[in-house]
């Protein structure tokens, strides 16, 4: 038996064993304390199913958008080994300029303000 088949069979057996152990050991009848929302030991003040403000989602999307620059600019130190590193520098500068313009636009439109 080759190594790939051994690893495949052992991973399937291990995952099935851990899943069976999980179903066997878990408590199947949760009480009301486990089902209630946790608020630092106090009684819940309101419904736990209230929708979040759209500002949280906007900030998360902005974070992902502006955090993308790390993934795009991370290979830049290795770009100096290319034949034409100036092309890479121009592209990196363009990306940084676009992200800066996007940040300025969001700031001017009030997308980063928490209170109105």
Helix/strand layout:
Layout: H1 3-25, H2 32-35, H3 54-73, H4 76-79, H5 85-109
Helix pairs in contact: 3-5
Family: Belongs to the complex I subunit 3 family.
InterPro entries: NADH_UbQ/plastoQ_OxRdtase_su3 (IPR000440), NDAH_ubi_oxred_su3_sf (IPR038430)
Catalytic activity: a ubiquinone + NADH + 5 H(+)(in) = a ubiquinol + NAD(+) + 4 H(+)(out)
Q: How is this structure best described in words?
A:
This is NADH-ubiquinone oxidoreductase chain 3. Belongs to the complex I subunit 3 family. It is found in: Mitochondrion membrane. The protein has 116 residues and is an all-alpha fold. The chain has five helices and no strands. The chain has a domain of 26 residues. The model has no long low-confidence stretch (mean pLDDT 80).
What's the quaternary structure here? single chain
* Strand percentage: under 5%
Strand runs, count: 0
The general outline is flat
Spell out the helices and strands N to C.
HHHHH
Rg of Cα set:
26 Å
What are the low-pLDDT stretches, counting only 5+ consecutive residues below 50? none
* Mean of residue pLDDT values: 80
Please estimate the helix content.
Answer: 55-70%
Biggest sheet details = none
Q: Helix tally? A: 5
Structural class: mainly alpha
- How far apart the termini lie comes to 67 Å
């Amino acid at each position: 038996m080759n190594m790939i088949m051994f690893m495949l069979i052992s991973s399937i057996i291990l995952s099935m064993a851990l899943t069976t152990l999980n179903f066997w050991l878990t408590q199947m009848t949760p009480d009301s304390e486990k089902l209630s929302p946790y608020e630092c030991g106090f009684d819940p003040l309101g419904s736990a199913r209230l929708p979040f403000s759209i500002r949280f989602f906007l900030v998360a999307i902005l974070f992902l958008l502006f955090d993308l620059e790390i993934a795009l600019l991370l290979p830049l130190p290795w770009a100096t080994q290319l034949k034409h590193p100036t092309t890479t520098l121009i592209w990196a500068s363009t990306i940084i300029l676009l992200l800066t313009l996007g940040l300025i636009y969001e700031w001017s439109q009030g997308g980063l303000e928490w209170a109105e």
